[in-house]
Amino acid sequence: MREKVEAQGRDLLVIETGDRVEGNGLYDSSDPKGLYLSEILRHQSIDVMTSGNHELYKQNTSESECLVTVHDFKDNYLASNIDIIDPETQELVPLAERYKTFTTKIQGIRIVAFGFLFDFTGNYNNTVVQRVEDTIQEEWFQNAIREKEVDLFLVAGHVPAHSPEYKAIFKAIRSIRPDIPIQFFGGHEHIRDYAIYDEKAVSLASGRFMETIGFMSIDGLSTKNRPTAGRNPVFKRRYIDNNLHSFYHHTSSDKDTFHTEKGINVSRLIAESRTTLELDKIYGCVPRDLWMSRRPYPHDASVYTWLEQDVLVDLLSDESRMDRPAVAVVNTGAIRFDVFKGSFTQDTVWTISPFTNQFRFVKDVPYGKVQLIMDVLNKQTKVVRRDDDAHGGDVDALAPPAQVNHRRWLDSEMDGTQQILSEALAEQSDSGEVIPGYTTTDDAGDDGDDTIHSSIPYYRVPNCIQALISANESIPETADLVYNEFIEPYLTLAAKFAGLDVDFGKEGESYMAGVTMTDLILRWVKENWPCDDSMHI
Ligand SMILES: Nc1ccn([C@@H]2O[C@H](COP(=O)(O)O)[C@@H](O)[C@H]2O)c(=O)n1
């Protein structure tokens, strides 16, 4: 693409907006995590790169970001509002440069670029995420937006396209620079989205899990050598399905001409890494598709129904608690992908359940109180004030991210519209039949999707599900309340609402020490879904 575009006298920039870690065997399967992924990433030519929230959940992840990824992309990695305790000096320092200025190779466009993370509060305490609204008051930012020689402000970030954070940055820049175009690139909400702030400022978000290559073209920027005398640039956006068919089409090539030597080498590196990590190793065969949101909950084909009725009930048990009844509470956001019929591999494990959360419990909780807590977690919208330290206090954050966004859009101050989400990697059909996939409507209309798809049903799921683990069928008076550690701060607050005075952080104890939900899922599949010859795909 770069070659093609440059031959036309234009520039191509590649922007990466974070969440490169967690949710894929290439990252999660190695020890230490990310070993193979960093090597692959190193070969990419990325012009502006930012951190997502996933890079900051754990100390080792952010430290590796600091020592490896920032190091590898030091001219292009931007961290406008993230500091880290340097693992070598123990000093609090910016994770990367706050901003950069550069001039594009072909057209000489002078760009001032920033890299932001949304107002995230769930990071481990070796990093500090400064609120965007505070960051833009800082002297360095105020100076940067007053930079004289600028044709375009480029704000990349792991920040939703429609968000108070981006709105604040837009207002801050516009108040000083009424005429300079601003291109935002966003993320985090797992949706394709495009926001039009004014005639010269737009924002593009490219969906989730690298299913989408968001493509933005800006035509007619006024530059030093080609001033456009006040005319507005033309912004166009396209959501490209991430597959070879799309790449052949947009590079005007085919299977024989598309591949470059570098591309072939990186593909080989990926294949070798997958082999070393045994990502195709088959642990079992899944008899039917299990969906996150394509079927209602509860449902025979819901991954959550399977989790609560089979995996948790069959396997969650701590030796020291013997036969005492337990209620397990797990957030639905802990599951990251559908489980497809067919081979269940080492890669599948990490794709559906990448988190390393362990289980904890509080003993002898009245069963009625557990139900009240579930009501609070699933029916309230917020259990805490924004300044309380529970990931912003929004219980919706316990659900899959795309669903969180669904509600925000409806409440949003900036006007957004709805979209139906694809859970499948979209493919073009050889027979010309329309394949289910993304059908996006955004601020610019419904013509953004590069491939036309039929829509996919979307059902809301609760924020948390529960499973009663008991030797007999009857409802117990009291039970161990077992939960995955990610939801601990939310539980403490929900318990207050439910009239239960328990500080889960202080009173919670380890349950099945060292075991994660990922381990349980894998064990359950191995024990219950062995492959027979007819089931391999
Ligand atoms: N240890 C964790 C971390 C995250 N989650 C869930 O993921 C959501 C955030 O995902 P994004 O891709 O939007 O950043 C979070 O709100 C949780 O639902 C988790 O379960 N455990």
TrEMBL record:
GO cellular component, one term: cytosol
Location of the Calcineurin-like phosphoesterase domain: 8-191
Pfam families named in the record: Metallophos, NadN_nucleosid_C
Domain of life: Eukaryota
Residue ranges of every copy of the Putative 5'-nucleotidase C-terminal domain listed in the record: 289-491
GO molecular function: hydrolase activity
InterPro entries, sorted: 5'-Nucleotdase_C_sf (IPR036907), 5_nucleotidase/apyrase (IPR006179), Calcineurin-like_PHP (IPR004843), Metallo-depent_PP-like (IPR029052), Nucleosidase_C (IPR053828), Pesterase_C1039 (IPR014485)
Gene3D superfamilies found in the cross-reference section: 3.60.21.10, 5'-Nucleotidase, C-terminal domain (3.90.780.10)
GO biological process: nucleotide catabolic process
Protein name, as recorded: Uncharacterized protein
